[in-house]
């Protein structure tokens, strides 16, 4: 699904949960975002909110990733149940490139060198999320018949 308004760009992709070993989720949705520096923040946030809320309504048990160049826009107030994982500057002293998910502590951002002629650094996201099966130890019960 592509969404465009006044230079804003968003693209959604759906990946089945078993493809990336997140079996406790029914699906994985990745939304790639580009919000230009001159874009109207409120309009961009409203469009993102409507799009992601619609997906969440249809797929409440899915894992959501919203990533891209947000420039001056912060998604945290618009989608308070999403967590920002990039805590390091990505262009100069500013954090313009962000990755949000609906799971706290899902990733840890590690800086890498620029790609090509980009003035943004590259970010590698290291999975930090512990699946439900690993968070709880199995319970052993003895049943006598």
Average predicted local confidence, pLDDT: 80
**Shape, per Cα inertia axes:** globular
Number of discrete helical segments: 2
Q: Provide the structure class.
A: alpha+beta
The description of the largest β-sheet is: 6 strands, mixed
* Regions with little confidence, pLDDT below 50 for 5+ residues: 1-9, 13-21
Question: Helix fraction?
Answer: 10-25%
CATH architecture level-2 label: 4-Layer Sandwich
Q: Distance between the terminal alpha carbons, to the nearest Å?
A: 56 Å
CATH class: Alpha Beta
Radius of gyration: 18 Å
Describe the strand arrangement of the main beta sheet, using strand numbers: 1-2-3-4-6-5
Strand content: 25-35%
| Total discrete domains | 1
- Give the ordered list of helices and strands: EEEHEEEEEH
Number of strands: 8
The CATH topology comes to: Deoxyribonuclease I, Chain A
Write out the CATH superfamily name.
Answer: Endonuclease/exonuclease/phosphatase
Topology:
Elements: E1 2-5, E2 8-16, E3 27-34, H1 41-58, E4 63-69, E5 83-84, E6 97-101, E7 107-112, E8 122-127, H2 132-135
Parallel strand pairs: 3-4
Antiparallel strand pairs: 1-2, 2-3, 4-6, 5-6, 7-8
Summarize this structure as a short list of keywords or feature phrases.
alpha+beta; Deoxyribonuclease I, Chain A; six-stranded mixed β-sheet
Could you describe the 3D structure shown?
Helix content is 15%, strand content 32%. It has a single domain (2-135), classed as 4-Layer Sandwich (Deoxyribonuclease I, Chain A), CATH 3.60.10. The model is unreliable at 1-9 and 13-21 (pLDDT under 50). It has two helices and eight strands; from the N terminus they run βββαβββββα. Strands 1-2-3-4-6-5 form a six-stranded mixed sheet, covered by helices on one side. Strands 7-8 form a two-stranded antiparallel ribbon. With 145 residues, it is an alpha+beta fold. Helix 1 links the parallel strand 3 (27-34) and strand 4 (63-69).
């Amino acid at each position: 699904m592509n969404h465009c308004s006044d230079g804003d760009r968003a693209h959604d992709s759906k990946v089945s949960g078993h493809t990336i070993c997140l079996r406790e989720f029914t699906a994985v949705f990745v939304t790639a975002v580009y919000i230009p520096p001159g874009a109207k923040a409120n309009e961009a946030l409203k469009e993102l909110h409507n799009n992601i809320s619609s997906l969440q309504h249809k797929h409440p048990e899915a894992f959501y990733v919203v990533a891209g160049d947000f420039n001056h826009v912060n998604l945290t107030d618009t989608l308070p149940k999403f967590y920002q994982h990039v805590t390091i500057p990505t262009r100069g002293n500013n954090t313009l490139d962000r990755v949000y998910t609906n799971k706290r502590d899902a990733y840890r951002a590690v800086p890498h060198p620029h790609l090509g002629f980009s003035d943004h650094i590259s970010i590698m996201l290291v999975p930090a999320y512990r699946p439900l099966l690993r968070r709880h130890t199995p319970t052993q019960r003895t049943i006598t018949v």
